[in-house]
Structures are given as structure tokens and as C-alpha cells.
Design a protein that fits this description.
Elements lengths: L10 H10 L4 E5 H14 L7 E5 L6 H9 L3 E4 L2 H9 L7 E4 L5 H10 L2 E4 L4 H9 L4 E6 L23 H13 L4 E6 L8 H22 L3 E5 L17 H17 L7 E4 L3 H4 L3 E12 L3 E5 L8 H5 L5 E3 L7 E8 L8 E9 L7 E4 L20 E5 L5 E5 L4 H4 L5 H6 L2
Parallel strand pairs: 1-16, 2-3, 2-9, 3-4, 4-5, 5-6, 6-7, 7-8, 8-9, 11-13
Antiparallel strand pairs: 1-10, 10-11, 10-15, 12-15, 13-14, 16-17
Helix pairs in contact: 4-5, 5-6, 7-8, 8-9
The structure holds pyridoxal-5'-phosphate.
């Protein structure tokens, strides 16, 4: 079978880019990413106040965030570093969602200082937030529906998951907020990751809308927004079908009309905090073949490692691989595609059928690395984090993060101190 996932550059163009920016690097296709961002937002244009908060953990690059913000997206942060990134590019107030867990006080303080919407993961965090930063006017809770919802391989079963409030805790939590003078309320849930089933998101909306009705009935509280979380999957395999957001939106709209508007509940805003779907398919890890090795198996040794892309080693995740210029050749040779870490799971593919004549110097493109690719990078074995490049709509390339150097790697060590040390 020949290779059937496309790349947004020719072999000649990527060769030119490599002359300026040595492999390995991640390169992101701006035009396709922005096109998807618009499609996402347009799909929910029926809902007044709709907002998609880009989960910056997927690809925490401020250039990309700036572009997505221009399309109308907010930012979903989960850590101090992510809040500071939002701050550095001038994001403030309700365009920031702060969805964290096991949260330190200083992150609550920072989030409140920026005016972010705070999404609490634990009923006890009401007191923590109040002590650390004072309760803001609006607070959101993360709901864990437990056995009501099936999970999936990355996030696990909701009942086993560490995130969120139980249903009883939600009622108790909103009661406390109301007593303490909080005026505006949000509700969030996220029970899937990399989910491709359209219906899954409609069912999630149904679960949320049901809680909204219960909170109104029991506490006379109007929930202002329903945050459906992230978890929208992407077609890592060419036979996968992407989530049809227009269908999802139509399904959510029908449930919204039935369970909110027809029940005389107050109109509410729909939010998402999608990360993977926004950047994942538009990123490519570009690497070169260094060696071909033959023992009990045949190995393609490349100059990237799992430090550049950890998902295959971490979850056995599939990432499509293209050998530039050899796309149409028969893929009839089994290989493991490996990096150079001293870890046997440092592999991008195991037993993958690829062209039989892959050779040193070939350019290999690993697909769908725009989310949880560079972001999950680490430096074991002294492997330095790579550059990130942006392929602009006019075909030019902008370096949006330089590659690390050995000076960066050793920046936290005082070598003079080592010399004096005995
Ligand atoms: C709370 C929360 N929101 C949003 C996201 C983004 O999810 P995804 O990238 O699957 O859309 C995550 C991912 O881990 C998350 O934990």
C-alpha cells in the first residue's frame, strides 16, 4: 500500500527549509490551522457568546496563540507557565479559562489577578481559592459524571479519573458559592480525550444540560455557560474520519432547545476548550534518516527521538510517516523507526510497512505532531528541544521557537562551583 496522508510542502521546498533549519524540527501549517479555527467557530454561530478556548498545553507557542486569538479564540490555561504566556501576549479577563487540578495557591492568585474564569476541580478548592485570592464574581466547577459516561484509553474511566466534582458535590458547591456572594456560575466537564465519535459530544452536552436544570430547580441558580472541555479527536490514521463539528453543533443545538430553551431556562453560552483538534493535524515533525540497521528486525534510525514526540512511546499512539519522494513506492518492508535515546521504547513506529529502499539522508515526516508533540518534549540523554517553524500562507517560513543549544541545557549548572567543589 502506498502512503496516502499528504504534507503541505514538496520535497524540494522542505529540503530548502532544512538547509536553513537543521532537522529535527516541528513545522506548522498556518493556513490549514486557521481554516480549521474558522470552521470550528462558524459551526457554533447559532449560540450567542460561543467561545472556543484553545488549550494551550497542546502547543504552547505564543505566535500560534496570537493567530488563534485573531480568529476569536480564548486561551485555556492549566499552569503558572501557561497563565504567564497568556499575560505576555496581553490576554486578560474572560478570554482566559483556568482549568487546573491539584492547584497551588500561587496559580489561583495569578489567575484571579489576570481576571481569568476560574474552573475549580475540587469542592475543597472553594476554600483554597477564597483564602489564596478571594472569590471572584464568577466561578465554574468541573463535573465528573462517573458511571454516567464511558471514558477512553487516554483519559480512562471517569470513575477512576482524578478530575472533577461528583454530582452531589456540585449541588453542595454551588450552594456554598451562592452563600458566599458569588454572582455568576459556570459548569464544565471533560471526560474524553482524542474522541472521534460525533455523538459522544452531544451526549456530553445532554449530561451538562441535565445538571443545569437540576441546579436551577434546587438552588435557583442560572448557569451562564456550559464548557464542554476538549477531547475532540483527530484522524491520526488515514482511515479515521474527523469529527464533524457541524453535526456535533446541530446535535448540541437540538438538545439545547429541548433541555434549556423549552424548559424556560435562561439562554446560556457554549464553550469548548479544545487543544488537539486545533493544532494537532497541522504539525509535522521533520527528521532525517541517519542509519539503517539490521539485526532480528530492520531499523530506520532517525535524528529525532521520543524527546521530540513522546506519544508513540507513552500511549502506543500511531503517527503516520511519510518518506519524502518515496510516497508512491510500494510499502512492503517492515521497519521499526527509532531515535537515539537509551530507551528501547524510543520508537516512532514498530513493524511499520514502508518503502524497501529507505536510506540515510532521506527526509522523514511524522504527521499530526502539532499537539502534545514539542509540548511534551524533555531532555533525557541531553537531547535538546527542537525548533518550531511556522509555514505561512505565502509559503515563507517563520521560526517561532529556536532550537535549544548546549548552553541552554547547562544553563542551570554552575560549572565554576563544580571546579571548586571537593
Ligand atoms: C482540562 C482540559 N481541558 C482541555 C484539554 C484539551 O484537550 P484536547 O487537547 O484533547 O482537546 C485538556 C487536555 O488534557 C484538559 O486536561
Amino acid at each position: 500500500m502506498a502512503n496516502i496522508k499528504s504534507v503541505p510542502f514538496t520535497k524540494e521546498r522542505i529540503t530548502e527549509i532544512i538547509e536553513k533549519y537543521p532537522t529535527p524540527f516541528h513545522i506548522y501549517d498556518e493556513e490549514a490551522m486557521m481554516h480549521y479555527a474558522q470552521y470550528f467557530i462558524n459551526s457554533f454561530d447559532w449560540n450567542e457568546g460561543f467561545k472556543q478556548y484553545y488549550a494551550i498545553k497542546a502547543c504552547p507557542n505564543p505566535y500560534i496563540m496570537k493567530l488563534l486569538r485573531e480568529q476569536g479564540m480564548g486561551i485555556d490555561c492549566s499552569s503558572m507557565a501557561e497563565l504567564v504566556l497568556a499575560e505576555k501576549i496581553g490576554m486578560r479577563g474572560e478570554e482566559i479559562m483556568f482549568t487546573s487540578n491539584n492547584t497551588p495557591d500561587e496559580e489561583f492568585k495569578k489567575a484571579v489577578e489576570l481576571g481569568a474564569i476560574i474552573n475549580l476541580d475540587d469542592i475543597k478548592h472553594i476554600a483554597t481559592l477564597e483564602r489564596a485570592a478571594g472569590l471572584p464574581e464568577m466561578v465554574c466547577f468541573r463535573y465528573n459524571p462517573g458511571a454516567l459516561k464511558g471514558g477512553n484509553i487516554i483519559i480512562g474511566n471517569p470513575e477512576d479519573s482524578k478530575y472533577g466534582f461528583t454530582r452531589e458535590q456540585l449541588i453542595e458547591g454551588y450552594t456554598i458559592l451562592k452563600e458566599k456572594g458569588v454572582k455568576r456560575f459556570g459548569l464544565h466537564t471533560m471526560v474524553a480525550s482524542n474522541e472521534l465519535d460525533n455523538d459522544y459530544f452531544v451526549e456530553t452536552a445532554e449530561i451538562i444540560f441535565d445538571v443545569v436544570a437540576e441546579v436551577k430547580e434546587k438552588l435557583d441558580i442560572d448557569i451562564e455557560f456550559a464548557n464542554m472541555g476538549g477531547g475532540i479527536g483527530i484522524p491520526y490514521k488515514s482511515e479515521h474520519k474527523p469529527v464533524d463539528l457541524e453535526k456535533v453543533s446541530a446535535g448540541i443545538k437540538a438538545k439545547y432547545e429541548e433541555m434549556i430553551l423549552n424548559k424556560d431556562l435562561k439562554p446560556m453560552k457554549i464553550f469548548f476548550e479544545s487543544g488537539r483538534a486545533i493544532t494537532g493535524p497541522y504539525g509535522y515533525l521533520v527528521t532525517k534518516v541517519r542509519h539503517i540497521k539490521e539485526t532480528y528486525k530492520k531499523y530506520i534510525g532517525v535524528d529525532a527521538t521520543m524527546a521530540n514526540l513522546m506519544r508513540p512511546a507513552l500511549y502506543g499512539a500511531y503517527h503516520h510517516i511519510t518518506v519524502m519522494g518515496k510516497e508512491d513506492q510500494p510499502h512492503n518492508q517492515l521497519y521499526d523507526v527509532a531515535g537515539s535515546l537509551c530507551e528501547n521504547n524510543d520508537k516512532f513506529a514498530i513493524n511499520r510497512l514502508m518503502p524497501s529502499d529507505v536510506e540515510p539522508g532521506d527526509i522523514i515526516v511524522i504527521h499530526d505532531t502539532g499537539a502534545h508533540g514539542h509540548a511534551m518534549g524533555f531532555q533525557y540523554n541531553g537531547k535538546l528541544r527542537s525548533a518550531e517553524l511556522l509555514l505561512r500562507p505565502d509559503g515563507s517560513v517563520k521560526e517561532i521557537r529556536r532550537a535549544e543549544t548546549l548552553d541552554d541545557f547547562y544553563a542551570t549548572i554552575d560549572f565554576d562551583g563544580v571546579e571548586d567543589f571537593d
